[in-house]
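Note to self: keep these together.
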Amino acid sequence: MPTNTKLSRMLDAGVNLTVDGALATELEAHGCDLGDPLWSAKVLLEQPQLIKRVHHDYFRAGAAVAITASYQATPLGFARRGIGEKEALERVALSVRLADEARREYLAENPDSGPLLIAGSVGPYGAYLADGSEYRGDYVLSRNEFLEFHRPRIAALVEAGVDLLACETLPSLPEVEALLTLIEEFDVECWLSFTLRDGGHISDGTPLAHVALLCREQPLVAAIGVNCVPLELVSPSLEALGKATDTPLIAYPNSGESYDAVTKTWRPAATGHPLAGRGGKQPSSLAEGTPIWRELGARLVGGCCRTTPADIAAVARLSVSP
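Structure:
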């Protein structure tokens, strides 16, 4: 048994959890320029206290889970900036300390708040490439290459004291398989969340039912689901996962805005699209979607790109456990 089973124990007790929202969006709102392959991990080098401030804002909004700023923080990524592996892994550990400091400060101000969890972000190899391939899953590495890429960061996150790992934005089956190996190696609970080709398949075309069955065989996987996906894909993907497994589900999609790669701007969400899953109309916000996704088995709900503390506050209000 892993020494830390906080997430699975909370889920077993019937608790619905609110996950935080976009880190990069808030850092940009505070004036950070994230036009860099390191993305939000760049702020670990330049203004780490801003990361703590954003974590605190999300706790104040009602998030019960903070995801660390380690999504793009890898030795290979930092090496591009001339930073050696030792310092790179120190920055990974710093991402955990910042979240934990924010948690401690929030609990000191709000001693009656429930347990708050720190999830160590483990982004995919595609995030290191910084070319959008985490939404395609079209990169090819050997099993050992995946293991060698992910192992140092996972070791640093676990040693720094995360409550669980957030293996997120995963686009391909071989990478999922490698991460499951490492989860067992480090004896740490996790959730796995995927990017999607459509409502029934992850980005490389693997059926969601297949990855659900694979994850069900690993007891350290406390939840599975989707993140960084359009709102309209959440319900059908949760339906597909729910049919294949009784593992608790997680969903933290994007805001509903669409990104125009030509103008490099975000456009408002379209409304009125038929819901591809269970009846009704497609939600245009996290608040509209949360009751639907909870009904479909999402025990953890939060937000990804372009979501804010205000969005998470709305989710938290709608996520009171039975």
